[in-house]
Amino acid sequence: MVFPKKACDFGLFFKKSRIFEKKSTKIMTNGIGIEYFTDEAGNKSKVLISYEDWQRIEADLKEWTAYKARKSSLKTAFMEVKLMQQGKLPKEDMQTFLDEC
Question: How far is CA 15 from the centre of its chain?
């Protein structure tokens, strides 16, 4: 099977190979060209985007995941400080804190 080389050739490729249904709708969302494929009832079943758009989405997702991890870590740290201030958690000295890092 020979795969298409240009994005515009993918439509013909998929139609010939019957990977996607016949009906599709192209929409631009946040600068990303998204093509939705629907089944016979009109329900969205598949999405087609360019590889460049996918790379941007993937990079944004990695950045968002890293942000959420840092936020969670900071939230835990602030909760520990609050519990220490309330006397519900023993306070650590600076050497113990630095040894954990």
Answer: 28
Helix (H) or strand (E) holding 67: helix 51-85
Q: State pLDDT tens for residues 10-42.
A: 554 455 444 445 566 777 777 788 888 888 888
| Cα distance between residue 78 and residue 84, in whole Å | 10
Q: Which residues pair with 38 in a beta bridge?
A: 44
What is the pTM (predicted TM-score) of this model? 0.53
Calculated CA dihedral for residues 96, 99, 100, 101, nearest 10 degrees: 130
- Which residues on neighbouring strands pair with residue 37, listed in sequence order? 24, 46
* Spans of all domains in the chain: 7-49, 50-101
